[in-house]
Specification:
- The chain has helices spanning 7-20, 44-60, 74-87, 100-103, 107-110, 125-128, 154-160, 168-180, 198-201, 204-210, 214-219, 229-243, 256-265, 277-284, 324-334, 337-347, 366-376, 385-388, 396-404, 410-428, and strands at 3-6, 34-41, 64-71, 93-96, 132-133, 136-137, 140-141, 146-153, 270-274, 292-296, 307-310, 314-316, 381-383.
- It is an alpha/beta fold.
- Helix 2 crosses helix 16.
- The strands form three sheets. It has a six-stranded mixed β-sheet, with helices on both faces.
- 44% of the residues lie in helices and 13% in strands.
């Protein structure tokens, strides 16, 4: 049976397992069980994913029992992951970002090498690239590819006769019409600070279109947000949305869950967000799922409109786990068609999988259908910056909250973020910093 442990209780239980250093089990006539712990963030989406995977895995593997722990999201959650890895108190399996944040947890020291696991043959190379360190693989993909862009309420668009914008100017013109109709044009939810980053991060396709070598130069300390007009525009666009009064009045106090509700109920027209939210929308607002569409964050040129893509997060095994072989069995399940089926059951179809043998169902939400044309043409999508550069400053979400709240000008924010990035790049020991 799956047990969901939350925050303080989870940490206490994890400490007990770490101190014991042994697997718990059943005695007598019942089959012996290995007890595993699994750490995920406390978002409703991640909890649903974990619970769905664990339920189906346990049904097929009655000798293993998995308890689910939760941690906060954002910077607080990142610190918890790093601390638990450093102290040897990490759960047997944990779910965490790929790309730059993965590289920041010192995978070669802290994680189990999964390079030679047979299931890696079915994993798409695009995912392997973002869970590789020192030429070795450390993660198994869960969920589908995500995109960063803008959800929109299709009923509002139909009511006002609006078309999906292909340029930033068209997007802002739509916002003016929506505001005039008495509807908040752009939902922002800064109670969950991580959500404030989307208008900046989802703009990276446009940055790369203008400066194809930006990521390489940025990684080697030759390009900056403050001095690159293309990169600085993400901050400027966030500033412009606030300056125009396009946000919901309670943007500072609203949460991610509030944002989903506002979008579904038509209390706001646009919500800049990652497409993993489709799963949460399907679970919480199934009757309104057909009213929600999605488009890439537009840039300056409508002829070069494209999508910024996030590779899936990964399941990892800490090197200090006393139950590595049992944990590997769970990861093998995750990276299989049975694991994809469990994810579809838990979250619905939210985007293309990174397991080659997994396919999407014929019926899917409109927002997922809206994503697929961007993947049909390779030139219309590009990985987010954090997947092509290991450099991402930890204070970004606080900086974007300040910009989106009118507290800090975009130009100052870009310069401040460049300083934040410097500290992280030096910690990683990157050349040129």
């Amino acid at each position: 049976m799956t047990i969901v442990l939350r925050h303080a209780r989870a940490a206490f239980a994890a400490g007990l397992f770490a101190l014991a250093g042994i697997a718990t089990g059943m005695t007598g006539a019942a089959q012996a069980q290995t007890q595993l712990t699994l750490l995920v963030s406390s978002s409703s989406n991640n909890q649903a994913l974990a619970e769905g995977l664990v339920a189906d895995f346990e049904a097929a593997n009655p000798d293993i029992d998995i308890e689910i722990e939760t941690r906060p999201g954002g910077g607080e959650g990142d610190n918890i992951v790093k601390t638990r890895l450093a102290t040897g108190a990490m759960a047997d399996i944990f779910y965490y970002n790929s790309g730059s944040l993965f590289r920041a947890i010192n995978p070669q020291k802290n994680l189990v090498d999964l390079t030679d696991e047979p299931w890696q043959a079915d994993v798409d190379d695009s995912f392997k690239a973002v869970v590789t360190a020192g030429g070795r693989l450390y993660g198994a993909p869960a969920e589908a590819v995500m995109a960063g862009g803008i959800f929109y309420n299709r009923k509002i668009y139909a009511q006002l006769g609006l078309e999906v914008p292909k340029s930033w100017d068209q997007f802002m013109a739509n916002n003016e019409k929506i505001k005039a109709a008495g509807i908040p044009p752009v939902i922002q939810t800064y109670r969950d600070t991580w959500t404030s980053q989307l208008l900046l991060l989802a703009d990276f396709f446009n940055v790369q279109a203008a400066e194809p070598d930006f990521a390489e130069r940025y990684t080697s300390n030759q390009a900056k947000f403050a001095t690159s007009p293309a990169a600085r525009k993400g901050f400027e666009r966030l500033e412009a949305v606030h300056a125009a009064g396009f946000q919901n009045e309670d943007f500072g106090a609203a949460s991610y869950e509030d944002g989903l509700r506002m979008l579904a109920d038509g209390e706001g027209a646009h919500y800049p967000m990652l497409t993993f939210a489709i799963g949460a929308l399907a679970a919480t607002y199934p009757d309104q799922l057909g009213d929600i569409g999605f488009f890439a964050q537009p840039g300056d040129d409508p002829a070069r409109n494209g999508l910024t893509v996030w590779l899936p997060a990964g399941f990892y095994i800490p090197a200090a786990s006393p139950n590595i072989e049992a944990a590997k069995r769970f990861l093998a399940f995750v990276a299989s068609p049975a694991g994809c089926a469990a994810e579809l059951k838990a979250l619905g179809a939210v985007g293309p999988f990174r397991i080659r043998s997994c396919t999407l169902p014929e019926t899917m939400p409109p927002a997922v259908k809206d994503m697929l044309p961007y993947f049909a043409d390779r030139a219309r999508n590009a990985p987010a910056l954090e997947f092509v550069s290991p450099v991402k400053g930890p204070a970004l979400e606080q900086i974007t909250v300040e910009v989106g709240s009118g507290i800090r000008p975009a130009a100052d924010a870009a310069a401040l973020y460049d300083e934040d990035v410097r500290k992280q790049a030096q910690q990683l020991g990157l050349a040129g910093w």
